[in-house]
Write a structure and sequence with these properties.
It is a single chain. By secondary structure, the chain is of the alpha+beta class. It has one domain. It is 29% helix and 13% strand. A hairpin with a 2-residue loop joins strand 3 and strand 4. The radius of gyration is 25 Å and the shape is elongated. About 3% of the residues have low confidence.
Length: 220
């Protein structure tokens, strides 16, 4: 007679459940860490984009002795803002900096802004037209209630980058867009740029303060 014994190679139902529970716990612990790494990567991408924007605008000034689009877009003695949803969008400014022909300024005898056909910046087109992220938007759309125009340079969360230029050539930006936490009220710079971050609002959920916000700025 042979005694019957359970196979040593098989798992019991309890053992399988224990393994599944352990895997679920490990995934639960890993997911927040993955999100944090992903968000940090997006912040790094946004910071790099902002540096490129500021560098491109300054390079345009060095080449032409003036900042782009100021004659056509703003009045004298005021800082020019692009991309904040209230002032002109940043698409025409980016076209001047990235297109060989540049934007034609109707107030400047119809001449091109970038007459020497220099490419100062070359961001990629977004991968998804309907859900633009990290690049040049390819169509008019709305991202989480934020309006995006075709041709605008958007951050990794789909919000257009905001750019502020010293229109009266005092080498000062007046006033700092943040009420606190982002340096002096008057910034000693010819151009600044910023991203509203993951919450897509200025400061911490719209409070206008840089401290403890998820915004990314070019000047710090």
């Amino acid at each position: 007679m042979h005694s019957s014994r359970p196979s040593l190679d098989a798992f019991t139902l309890i053992e399988l459940l224990v393994v599944i529970v352990i895997i679920a716990i490990l995934m639960g612990l890993a997911f927040p860490a993955f999100q944090a790494v992903q968000n940090q990567a997006r912040k790094t991408q946004a910071k790099n984009d902002l540096v490129q924007i500021v560098t491109a605008v300054n390079a345009f000034y060095t080449e032409y002795g003036k900042y782009p689009l100021l004659d056509a877009q703003v009045s004298a003695n005021a800082d020019a803002v692009f991309g904040d949803g209230t002032n002109p969008s940043n698409d025409k400014l980016l076209n001047v900096l990235r297109m060989p022909s540049g934007f034609v300024d109707s107030q400047n005898a119809g001449g091109p802004q970038n007459s020497r056909k220099i490419v100062f910046i070359s961001p990629p087109d977004v991968k998804d037209k309907a859900n633009p992220r990290s690049g040049i938007a390819l169509q008019d759309t709305t991202v989480n209630g934020v309006s995006v125009k075709a041709g605008e340079f958007v951050d990794p969360w789909g919000t257009p980058y905001v750019i502020k230029i010293d229109a009266d050539y005092t080498n000062q930006i007046e006033i700092n867009p943040y009420s606190s936490g982002a340096g002096a009220a008057i910034l000693a710079s010819g151009v600044i740029s910023w991203s509203l971050g993951k919450d897509q609002q200025l400061g911490n959920k719209g409070d206008g303060k840089f401290t403890s916000s998820d915004d990314i700025i070019s000047w710090q």
